[in-house]
Amino acid sequence: MAKWRDYYEVLGVTRDADQKTIKDAFRQLALKYHPDRNKQPGTSDRFKEIAEAYAVLGDPKNRAEYDAHRSVGVAGFSPEDLFGGTNFDDILGGLGFDFGGPFDRFFGHRGTPRRGENIEVNVEVPLERILNGGEETVHIERPVLCQACHGSGAKAGATPSSCAKCGGTGRLVRTQRKGGVSLRQITTCPECAGRGTVIETPCPECGGKGEIHRYEALTVHIPIGVEEGAVLRVPGRGMPADKPGLPPGDLFAIVRTANDPRFERDGRDLYRVETIDVVDAVLGASIDVPTLEGQISLKVPAGTQPDSMLRLRGRGLPRFGDGVRGDLYVRLRVHVPERLTDRQKQLFEQLRTPAGRRSSSR
């Protein structure tokens, strides 16, 4: 017997919580545990549990039945029953991530014909775009439905005929007996390539394929503070479906931080290396340091040691969701000159002699 799961506990709400409280709790947990944002082991299972809990408690009818019978998790519910009435896009939309469609992504497809496959691409995003948000362009090549034949592959006015070799099934079945056992071998019909129809007069635009390849420049909205590896969804820009009339898949743009010679990114924080002279490390100095908003002056304290780290608060990247800025860390390297002028040598010799040490200590 399946173990009963307390969905109120899963969402962290009380049993008398109203629908808004349940919805807010689900939204917060989904942001935290969605596998596109959280790469820790077990995240997918945790997200499934959260989605199941909300599908039950977020629907008044499901919740009433759950409260009355203490039903065991999703036992007895088909995925269509459980998720059919839940609009995840409406609940979690507007954030740019693929929060919609957890049914398809995590719980398998419905029994209806499948739509087109999804496409994944990387989009390199500069640090300034992560700071301020905005638009980035993604260039892709994908097949699209041929408008001349509407995906049939046949020339306008012509009709595909049923394949005589497979009888329109798209498959060839061969049966043979071995040792009293009947074996069936099913293969794709080579005559019609599994379509079940033969095009005698192909469409001149697509050559009978029903689709053409097209290069597209798509605009992707980059939310402020988008995280490395986040997945942004562009609905309907994936592969076309196998059959005309079914919707295409989606485009998933995976965010990659563009290389920047000025900084290295670690979450919200930025890191930079600055080289200073020995005299500046000893006596202190002010140096100009680049930030995402322009140059600022950074004070180097006297007596700074090699590889010291100075922090500029609030000069990093914003956190996704609330905009709280990270920090910029500047690592200081001390440059030791390889060649000295005679005057420089004299000065360093004075520092090394006991007299020089005494005079410098006064």
Task: Give a verbal description of the structure.
This protein is α+β, with helices and mostly antiparallel strands and 362 residues long. The chain has 4 domains: 1-112, Orthogonal Bundle (Helix Hairpins); 114-160 and 199-258, Urease metallochaperone UreE, N-terminal domain (HSP40/DNAj peptide-binding domain, Sandwich); 161-198, no CATH class; 264-361, Sandwich (HSP40/DNAj peptide-binding domain), CATH 2.60.260.20. The protein contains 11 helices and 15 strands. The strands form 6 sheets. It has a 4-stranded mixed beta sheet. A 3-stranded mixed beta sheet has the order 1-9-8. Strands 2-7 form a two-stranded antiparallel ribbon. Strand 12 (285-291) and strand 13 (294-300) form a beta hairpin. Helix 10 crosses helix 11. The protein is elongated and about 105 Å long.
- Uncertain segments of ≥5 residues (pLDDT<50)? 71-76, 99-103, 107-112
- Cα Rg: 32 Å
Give the DSSP E fraction (strand runs of 2 or more residues). Answer: 25-35%
**Chain-averaged pLDDT:** 81
Instruction: Count the domains.
Output: 4
Sequence of strands across the biggest β-sheet:
10-11-15-14
Q: What is the CATH class of the largest domain?
A: Mainly Alpha
Q: Could you name the CATH homologous superfamily of the largest domain?
A: DnaJ domain
The separation of the N and C termini measures: 85 Å
CATH topology of the largest domain: Helix Hairpins
Query: What is the overall shape?
Result: elongated
The number of E-state strands comes to: 15
Number of helices: 11
Class of secondary structure makeup? alpha+beta
Name given to the CATH architecture of the largest domain: Orthogonal Bundle
Approximately how much helix is present in the residues?
25-40%
Oligomer classification: single chain
